[in-house]
Each structure stands twice: as C-alpha cells, then as structure tokens.
Amino acid sequence: MDYLSTRANAPAADFENVLLAGLAPDGGLYMPARWPQFAPGEIAAFRGKAYSEVAAAVMARFTGAVFSEADLRALAADAYGGFDHRDVAPIVQVGEEDWILELFHGPTLAFKDFAMQVLGRMFGAVLGRRGERLTIIAATSGDTGAAAIYALTACDRVDIVVLHPEGRVSDVQRRMMTTVDAPNVCNIAVKGAFDDCQAIVKDLFADRAFAETARLSGVNSINWARLAAQTVYYVTAHAALAEENETVSFVVPTGNFGDVFAGYAAKRMGLPIKRLGVATNANDILHRALTAGDYVPAAVAPTRSPSMDIQVASNFERLLFEALDRDGAALRAMMEAFKNTRAMHLDDNIRARMATDFASFAVSEAETLAEIKRHHAETGALIDPHTAVGRRAARALRETGALAGKVVALSTAHPAKFPDAVEQATGVRPDLPPAFADLFDRPETVLTAPADAKAVKTLILKHLEHRSGR
Q1: Active site includes 454?
Q2: Burial, 291: exposed, middle or buried (Cβ in 10 Å; 0-12, 13-18, 19+)?
Q3: How far apart (Å, rounded) are the C-alpha atoms in residues 101 and 12?
Q4: 333 within some domain
Q5: With bands split at pLDDT 50, 70 and 90, how would you rate the model's confidence at 437?
Q6: d(CA 282, CA 72)
Q7: Could you list the residue range(s) of the whole structural domain that residue 251 is in?
Q8: CB count, 10 Å around CB of 13?
Q9: Closest residue by Cα to residue 82 from 123, 118, 124, 55
Q10: C-beta neighbour count of 468 within 10 angstroms
Q11: pLDDT for res 115
C-alpha cells in the first residue's frame, strides 16, 4: 500500500513512513494511493467476531507488509484488552431506527483511545526494530492529548509533547493530561485557542531543521494511521445492526473532521453507508462550508463541547482532495490561497460532490443542554455534550429528510468528562469511573507558553535536553 500527499509535491511513502512522519514533507496529508475494498460477504462475516479480530482484518488493508494480519491481531488484542466493555464499542438502541455507538470505554474515556492505543503499540514496534527515537507532538482540544499520553508513556523510544489551549478544556480533560507522572511527557498550556495549538504544530513541522533534530512525528488526525484505526468501529457497528447490503447512516460530532472522514474512508472501501452527518456546535465552519461553500474561520467560541471548538479543520483537506478528483496541484493552490487570505469558497460543483456523502447541522448551546436533558428523561442515561450535539443533529437531519432509515450517532466521550454541563442539564452529576476517583487529588505538571511557535520550540528543546542529560 502506497500513500500520496494531498499536495502532490512529495514522494510516495509506505505505511511505516506515513506512521512515523505524520505530515507529508510538502505540508500535505497522506492518503492511500487507492482505496482498498471489502470482498463480497466479508462485512456480514464480521458479525459476532471480537472487535480486535475485525480491527486486524480492516487495518491490514492499510498497513501492507509493514504489519502482517497476525501481527495486527496480537497488537489489537493487547490494545483493546484494557477497554471496560466486552464489546469494546457497544451499540445501544435508543429509538425505532436510532442507535448510539459508545466510544468511551477506553482508558481515557473518549473515542481517541481507539486509535491511540493502536498507534502507541505500532510506534513501539517500528521504532524498536529500527533502533530509533521520536518526539511526538500533539495539539489537543481536550481528548487527543490524554489518549496519546496514556498510549505512549510506556514507550521508552518516544517523548511526547502535548499542547492544549489554556482554560479551554474541561477540568477532567486537563487533569487526565497534567497528572500523568512520566519523564517522557511534556504538557504545554498555550494562551490561545485550539487553532493556535494546531497552527504551532504545523509551523514546527515546517521548520525542517528543528523537525529533523527533534525527530518530530504526530498523532493528531493528520496522521493517516489514526484514521485507519477509526474506520473499524464503523464496520463493527454496521455488522452488528444491518443486513449485508443494507445502508446505514452515521452522525458524527466533529470539529477537525477526522472522525467523520474515517467513516468516509470506510464507505470508499465498500461499507454500505448511506450518508454521514456532520454535527457541529457554534463553531460551525464545517456546516457553513458544506451548505453554503463558506470556509472562512471566525473567532473560536468557547462552548460546553470544547473538543469541537475548532475553526480550521485539518482533515477537511482530505475531502477537498477527493472532491477535486485527487488533483494535488489544484488543492495545493487552494491551500496556499487559504493560508494567505484565511478564506475559501467552495463552488457549486465541489459542494454537490460532497453532498452525495455528507449532510450537516449546527447545534446551539441551548439545544445541546436540551438534548442532554431530553435523552436523560427518555432513557434514564446520561450523555456528554459532544454526544448531545450528535444526537440533536441526527434528529434534525432525520426531520428534514436528509437522513432516513437506520441512523447511528457516535457517542465520543463519557459524561463524567464534562460533569458541569451534564449536571446543569439534568441535575445529576456523573461520577468518574473508579480508576479516576482520585483525579482531583493528583498533582499537576504543566508549562505555559504564548501562542508562538518559537516559544514552544524553546520549551521542547529544554525538555529534550533534560531528557538526554545534557
């Protein structure tokens, strides 16, 4: 399996180099040179199989010779063995044709664990046989950072640096990152929004001298390996509730477009997905782009669903690449213009092509709280604000006719990660699982920096110098 850069100005790479590099050297994102395909009857045959077995079978199509399916079976069994539900990604019916896919049963209670637990083991295996070290740098709007830290602290060939926007993640999200006592972890609170953190990461990758000296790699969803791992739960959900060729729609609360693009990848592989619902909060650039062609960032509005408080969605570049018939030169020109003007308008042809696969809906803060309250009153269960955005969007898109038939909303985080919002909506404060019962008693370790790449680079170099003993 070869991978190409969306900007068509970098050599092809295999899965191992895509995993280690994260971002292509021309600033583009790696994409499979061709979409692998499921064989007839294969999806139905996944029904009843262990999640780790399905993960190995699906991911083998992306890894090529780098990991055999046998390697992946062992790796996935280890990665998902610590999840607290036997089904790993259970699917719960909440209406006649409506389901919730629970993706919060991993070690940090969020969907990011599905990819990170696999990536951590992949990094360990590849770096071990190459005898190399890496510095992993991640920008997080709340969940990626903790998932990456929990996946990589045991990897002695990796240092991990996590940037989060100061004051713009929940207290639980922050403490899951800053209370981990491990010498290879460096947490940096950036005085800005997630988009600032993301821009700093891209600037550091673009600084080729620094990137090579620090041996930078990434685990944000710019890294294709993340999305490859996330395609799996779309497959297991479909196998669990649909007939072999029956179409199912999925609604995904998303800010950076990675999770929903994983669903698109599964569809391109042959999974019978009717449509993908893009659910946004008040930071609605994706909704504006898909419905009006207006891809113009506004100021980031803090919300009760902070993991979606994003105005520049990195993975949207991958969808643009597909909508442009993989014309990397055309995409490169669009992204350069966007970098200079901070505005992009999608013409009717591009929007029409996207509308074949995607529908969208923006959910207000009042609607988010109302959905948490409604869901609790009707089912007795608590959901977090991100899941509420997905559920409200699913209901709205069904009402408008944009979605029909079986619809699955992705539940991306445990309600206890956002206790204030849940309590405000329902009067019930969700408890953290026993593993985190003492989370607020643990000491925190975190550095602070302005929203400036040079300042962050200085902190990273100091961390690496301390680690090397110089």
Answers
A1: no
A2: middle
A3: 35
A4: yes
A5: very high
A6: 39
A7: 91-106+224-426
A8: 21
A9: 118
A10: 9
A11: 96
**How high does pLDDT run on average in the chain?**
95
pLDDT at 244: 81
Query: Using an 8 Å Cβ cutoff, are 195 and 310 in contact?
Result: yes
Going by C-alpha positions, the residue among 241, 214, 252 that lies closest to residue 103 is 252
For residue 399, the domain's CATH number is 3.40.50.1100
Candidates 251, 223, 275, 166; CA nearest to 20 is: 223
Task: Tell me the C-alpha to C-alpha distance, in Å, between residue 403 and each of 96, 115, 418.
Answer: 14, 28, 29
Cβ-based neighbours of 69, under 8 Å, separated by 6 or more = 56, 57, 60
pLDDT of residue 470: 46
- Helix, strand, or coil (residue 455): helix
Average of per-residue pLDDT across 281-298: 97
The DSSP symbol for 315 reads: T
DSSP state of 364: -
Crossing angle between the packed helical segments 316-323 and 328-341, to the nearest 10 degrees? 140
The active-site residue, picked from 49, 112, 274, 457, is: 112
Q: What does the CA dihedral 4, 10, 12, 15 come to, rounded to 10 degrees?
A: -70
Q: Is residue 188 assigned to a domain?
A: no
375 in a structural domain: yes
pLDDT single digits (tens) 83-130: 999 999 999 999 999 999 999 999 999 999 999 999 999 999 999 999
Banded pLDDT at 391 (limits 50, 70, 90)? very high
In three-state secondary structure terms, 360 is strand
- Position 220 scores a pLDDT of 83
In a domain, residue 337? The reply is yes
**Which 8-state DSSP code applies to residue 29?**
B
Q: What is d(CA 131, CA 127) in angstroms, rounded to the nearest whole number?
A: 6
Beta strands 91-95; 98-102: pairing state: antiparallel
Is the pLDDT score of 225 beyond 50? yes
Specify the number of domains making up the chain: 1
Residues 269-277: what's their mean pLDDT? 98
CB within 8 A of 100, min separation 6: which ones? Answer: 91, 92, 94, 383, 387, 391, 408, 409, 410, 411
Tokens of 191: 């005085």
Q: Is 210 exposed, middle or buried (0-12, 13-18, 19+ CB in 10 A)?
A: middle
> Which amino acid is residue 425, in one-letter code?
A
Give the span between the Cα atoms of 93 and 398, in whole angstroms: 16
**Which residues, in sequence order, are bridge partners of residue 319?**
none
Give me the helices (H) in 190-269, please. 194-206, 208-214, 224-241, 258-268
